[in-house]
Design a protein that fits this description.
By secondary structure, this protein is mostly helical. It is 74% helix and 0% strand. It has helices spanning 2-15, 23-30, 34-45, 49-67, 72-78, 84-95, 99-105.
């Protein structure tokens, strides 16, 4: 049951990347306390829920940068980042390069 709950929460994150999602919201969706949910989620996925969500948002940004010519501010909104500057900060931390440089590299 714990695995099914955390997989459902992970799927919810992937389906709602553009929406503001809190750990409290995910825990409530699973019918668990925030603390218990966070512990189970980290055990199952290897990351805390907030870190998992951020990684999924970066993955989607990577996909959009590779597959589209959509402006960074639109990608930021579609991936749940407050603005293109925050996308750039988070993206650079995870990928080691800015979103613009990543797109230009053609990777």
């Amino acid at each position: 049951p714990a695995r099914r709950l955390t997989q459902a929460a992970a799927a919810y994150c992937r389906e709602h990347l553009a929406d503001p999602i809190s750990v409290q919201t995910l825990a409530r969706l699973c019918g668990l306390s925030q603390w218990h949910f966070s512990r189970l989620f980290k055990t199952e996925h290897g990351l805390a829920p907030a870190a998992f969500l951020q990684m999924e948002r970066v993955r989607e940004a990577v996909r959009l940068l590779q597959d589209t010519d959509v402006p960074l501010k639109v990608i930021a909104a579609q991936c749940g980042f407050l603005d293109a500057n925050y996308l750039g900060k988070v993206f650079s931390r995870h990928m080691g390069v800015s979103p613009g440089a990543f797109r230009r590299s053609g990777v």
